[in-house]
Write a structure and sequence with these properties.
Length: 255
């Protein structure tokens, strides 16, 4: 393979409904690909579009193109191709980091993760202990009763991780697609069965994560309409540091 082409695929944890690829997996693999083409510049933001459903049984080719290599910033574009079609596109920006003003939101209150139920177990999945991400519900799980468009969940990798910070960041990207669009469903579940799919995904990274420890994911949905729902969120470590800000729009339709 040339330095700007990487191969990925589903593997464990990548299969969504109807044998589709989980969008977070494609985003995470794209992030690993772009990180391998930039030296000494940490990733500070990404903006992505999910263009077509990916299929779990087929390989994905990630084509990375350099857009900029500057003194303090670098930029890359990556396209994910499968069966001759572009299924995903992501633009990533890297920043060396400089001295400047700093502030952040206050981490919301939440019960400790050890006291919160596992989301996959609540959903009746017999293999809940083998899921790649341990998701603990602080707020009530989305079911068939309408709830406010807000959720708080704890997230952590379900197993040991290597020290490579690029992997910790890519796994945080993978996990950021969990529960996010679901937040836009919550006020409307009593109105009928809802289907959804991610359309775009943006993230801004404020500090390097350790994903072998718990992260609190606070999500809200300010608006839904025209068959689409918008959700945003923030990820915090147990020390209260805001690690990332996230925004996503997805299709939200009654079946």
């Amino acid at each position: 393979e040339s330095p700007d082409v990487f191969t990925g695929g589903a593997g464990e944890g990548g299969i969504g409904g109807e044998a589709r690829l989980f969008g977070g997996l494609v985003a995470a693999q794209a992030v690993m690909a772009v990180q391998r083409t930039v030296e000494d510049f940490p990733l500070h933001s990404l903006h992505a579009y999910f263009l077509r459903p990916g299929r779990a049984a087929k390989e994905i080719a990630y084509h990375v193109r350099a857009l900029k290599d500057g003194k303090n910033f670098a930029a890359r574009q990556v396209e994910a191709w499968q069966s001759g079609q572009c299924i995903f596109q992501l633009t990533a920006s890297f920043h060396r980091g400089e001295r400047g003003p700093a502030h952040q939101p206050v981490m919301p209150s939440a019960a400790p993760p050890e006291e919160c139920p596992n989301r996959d177990r609540l959903r009746g999945r017999s293999y809940w202990q083998d899921m790649p991400i341990d998701v603990r519900m602080v707020t009530e799980i989305t079911a068939d009763v309408s709830l406010p468009a807000e959720q708080k969940v704890w997230l952590k990798a379900n197993g040991p991780l290597p020290e490579d910070p690029r992997i910790h960041l890519a796994l945080m990207v993978y996990a950021s697609d969990r529960c996010l669009l679901d937040t836009a469903f919550r006020p409307h579940v009593s109105e009928g069965e809802i289907t959804g799919a991610s359309l775009d995904h943006s993230m801004w990274f404020h500090a390097a994560p350790r994903f072998d420890d718990w992260l609190l994911y606070h999500t809200q949905s300010p608006v839904a309409g025209q068959g689409r729902g918008l959700a945003n969120g923030a990820l915090y470590d147990t020390g209260g540091n805001c690690l990332a800000t996230i925004a996503q729009e997805g299709s939200v339709r009654f079946r």
